[in-house]
Each structure stands twice: as C-alpha cells, then as structure tokens.
Amino acid sequence: MKHNLKIVLILVSLFLAAQYIGLYINHQYFTQELPFNIQRPEFDAQISFIPTIMLIIFMTIIILLLAKFKLRKLWKAWFFFAVWFALVISLSVFVNQRIAIIIGLFGAIFKVLDVDIYVHNITELFIYGGLVAIFAPTSSNDIPSCEAIPITLPNTGASADASKLPSLTVPMRFENAHMLFF
Question: Which residues are 152's β-sheet partners?
C-alpha cells in the first residue's frame, strides 16, 4: 500500500466530510436561492451534458494557453476568484452572506498565496459543495453523465449505444439527501 493506515483514514475522512457537507449545502439551496441573486446557468435538462462538455473543453484550452504563454499571475487570479466564488456560495448556507464574503476572501487568499495543508483541505471541503450548488440543478436526474458518452468496448473496437448500457450510478434525488443527517 502506498500510504500507511493513518493517512488512508485521514483521506477517507476528508472525502466523506466533503460529500456530507456538499449534500447539506445542496439540500439547503433546493429550498432557497443562491446568495446575491446569483443565477444558475440554464440548460435543457435532457442535453445539459453537451454545453457542460463544451465548457470543459473550452476552459481546458484556455488553461493550456495560459500555461504555454507562462501567464502564471493571470492563472492564479482566475483560480483565486473561482475559489472565492465557490466559498461564498458554500459558506452562505452557514453564515450571513456578507460574513461569507469575508471568510471566503480570507480562505481564498490563504489557499492561493500560502501553501498551508490545513487551509487547503478545509477550503476544499466547502468548494465542491459550492460548485455543485451551481451546476447540479442544470443536469438531468434521468441521464447520468457517465451514460451520456458512448463507450468503446474493449477487444471489439465497436462503439456501444449509451442508452442500452446499465446504469453506472446510484440513483439518488437531492430532496431525500436530508435523511443522511438524521
């Protein structure tokens, strides 16, 4: 095993904590609006994976261009604002929106400018919940993203029809997520 048992338990604990915090944050945002009247992107639920994949490809190209032209400061500024934005959305569930801006600002500053393992891991716990709060309602509950992409079958070279594949995800609706906490 690559890591000792203590490290594995810490990693698993952080993973589970991020999942529970994310579920809690998303459950709260199904009953209330995002802070500061932030609007979620509007996609057709049946084809929401298409703009999402296009956005991922576009942003990857942008990041590769930033790396190629050695625009490290612009990359860090972009990362800073993304972290701050996600933290504000997440923390607004727990504290007042204005306090969330301040806490998120300090969290983003220390995450981007200072290499501290504790700040990094604590902010990571909340960042994922904020990102999912924005994008989860844009995807369809009927089409998991892993089924939306055709899969090449091993040893045959044939492409499979994604609609005939078994579901690779566990169906769970967020309105039942609160049951995990009680």
Answer: 159
For residue 49, give the nearest of 174, 130, 150 by alpha carbon.
150
Q: What are phi and psi of 152, to 5 degrees?
A: -85, 125
> 33 is written with which tokens?
């609006």
- Helices 72-91 and 5-29, interaxial angle, to 10°? 70
Cα gap 48→42, rounded to integer Å? 9
Q: Which tokens go with 100?
A: 């969330």
- Band the pLDDT of 145: cuts 50, 70, 90: very low
User: Residues 18-61: pLDDT tens digits?
Assistant: 999 999 999 998 888 888 888 877 767 677 778 888 989 999 99
Cβ–Cβ < 8 Å for 131, 86: yes
